[in-house]
Amino acid sequence: MTQPTTYRFSFGPWNISEGADPFGPMVRTPYSFEEKLDWYRPLGFEGVQFHDDDAVENIDDLSAGQVATKARQVGKMLADRGLTPEFVAPRLWFDARTVDGGYTSNSPSDRQYALDRSLRTIDVARELGTPNIVLWLAREGSYIRESKNARAAYDRILDAVNAMLEYDKECRIWIEPKPNEPTDHAYVPTIGHALALAYRSVDPSRVSGLIETAHAILAGLDPSDEMAFALAHDKLASVHLNDQNGLKYDQDKSFGSANLRAAFNQVRVLEENGYGRRGEFVGLDVKAIRTQKQDKSTAHLVNSRKTFLHLVEKVRTFDRELERQLIADRDYEELDAYTLRHLLGVNDESLPAIEGQREFSRSV
Ligand code: 3MF
Ligand code: MG
């Protein structure tokens, strides 16, 4: 029998946030980057996810040499704490030159900025000690359909991916699809789109996907099925587990908070397909809710990690023989009911003990 997977967890420094939203300011004071790094191990996390400027502040104002020096220093800060850099993502949605998008901007000089910045991100990743680059294509979309040529946009995204692959023969690109927000519609909304781009690239073996629960839900899709699709292509490089209560702004709720059963199914698909056995991290892209007090700024991370591990236990204790029988009998109604009982941690025998139910069972 193969050993059970020991899961490793990761998050990014932005996941310890201060509660600002479009309607109000911060409600907690920021912790320094070093303070955040000090928390990883005690909270049960080993992997650190970065935006390029999480690692190297003011990256656009520094020379290539300065960027490399700073990134090496951060790499040392990680090593000192027993932490692993998981990936670096170019933050292509903040600068004035990315107002109309990065790779798909209508301005050639802005597109050039986006590419230059992405190559700089690869330098940061190399110095930090990871080959992995995440592309969350934040503004690669439009608010007004007629303002951009969607067909050209796909070519431009592909050109950027290819230029990155050619710039560094070791780097790996993980596309994190999201269907909307901040743009109206994004050009790479689902994992299917991301992997189609991967196969068209100059080196498909180095391009794969990162699936975020909330992003799949916003696309109207089941996150576990999206994960299964990527796993079937051996292209699930990482995950951003969280939760999302319907079609709203991107909520980044704690994992399992809105739909425990969907969370169970994500864990099920990961566990059944050996996700994590080759070192893949369980990433949690969860946000502290605005009402949290300062000293509880990390509870959402701890809770999400615990929920994941409880659900691993639920997957491992699922009655496989019963499942096999019910599927063979095509009794999906009972499979549904068994799944709910299993998640509730109850069995049918416990029902008569509930007052009122006793009356009910006697009367029928
Ligand atoms: C946006 C996201 C982002 C990305 C991050 C890394 C704030 O919806 O999920 O997190 O995950 O920028 O690519
Ligand atoms: Mg994310």
Automatic annotation (TrEMBL):
Domain Xylose isomerase-like TIM barrel: 38-258
Principal cellular location given in the protein's record: cytoplasm
Reaction(s) this enzyme catalyzes, per UniProt: alpha-D-xylose = alpha-D-xylulofuranose
One MF term in the entry's GO annotations: xylose isomerase activity
Keywords of the record: Carbohydrate metabolism, Cytoplasm, Isomerase, Manganese, Metal-binding, Xylose metabolism
GO CC field: cytoplasm
EC number, as in UniProt: 5.3.1.5
Family: Belongs to the xylose isomerase family.
Protein name in UniProt: Xylose isomerase
Species, as recorded: Lacipirellula limnantheis
Lineage: Bacteria, Pseudomonadati, Planctomycetota, Planctomycetia, Pirellulales
